[in-house]
Design brief:
Layout (H helix, E strand, L loop, with lengths): L2 H6 L5 E2 L5 H6 L11 H4 L1 H14 L3 E3 L7 H5 L7 H18 L7 E6 L14 H18 L3 E7 L2 H14 L5 E5 L13 H10 L4 E6 L3 H14 L5 E5 L5 E3 L2 E3 L4 H14 L1 E6 L5 H12 L1
Parallel strand pairs: 1-10, 2-3, 3-4, 4-5, 5-6, 6-7, 7-10
Antiparallel strand pairs: 8-9
Amino acid sequence: MSTWQNLINKPGIIIADGAMGTMLQQAGLKPGELPTLWNLEHADRVRAVHGAYLAAGAQILLTNTFSGNRFCLAKHGLTARLAELNIAGAQILRAEIEAQKKRGEALVAGDIGPSGELLSPLGKLSFEEAVDGFTEQARALIKGGADIIWIETMADLEEVRAAVEGTRKASADMPIIATLTFDTRGRTMMGVKPETAAAALSEWGIAAFGGNCGNGPDEMLAVIEKMHAAAPGSILVAKSNAGAPEFVNGATVYRAAPGTMAEAALQLRAAGARIIGGCCGTVPAHLAAMARALKA
């Protein structure tokens, strides 16, 4: 039995982690700097973020590899280091989980973000090229020790399908989680509705799916409600931002307090979410409050 099966077979809510980018910015990541490169240049700081989320109660944690695909790395001249960066990202998280194993079981989720390109016919990236790129990243994450692959912040269902196919080319039996980003109109940037996504992802046999990022927990609540109605037997994931992003003096600010996120977590659970965490602006204090509320 896989560690994923061990986790989901236990009753209750599963706590996912919070924001990586927000925490790395607090640790000194500069605007325009590639977070994934920190897996090699500042591994201690990346590991400290994972450690803080484990201490706050996280049971599924994402590797620092959101921009670790060949398409994003090419913009920084780093495609030759793709395997090294992704393997290191998984190994850093695995090492911290092992160091804190007394806290209980936690999983390494190999994080795959969007390509940053538009797929054909809207853009130049072919479906086959996207599959190849995601296969390459998934293979490196699995080599580094990922328990599951988490495809996140997607807007295009075809790109999700490419990432799923890519992952399955790397490993036919690797559990996959997929989350899309929806806005206040209830659609992704490419016009996908939550119920449409739920129907497709259910058909593709995804282990769990839902939403991440966006404009805060109120928006996420509507997404989970619609997905639960469309796919009531599925394991749903809610990982919202800590409120809507605001730009203050050149910086992005998220104003939802830990108590607000904790209350939202209870509402998301009631709406049908089984895996609950946070995205941009969510730090360990938020996650700890959410975990306390959900475990009470």
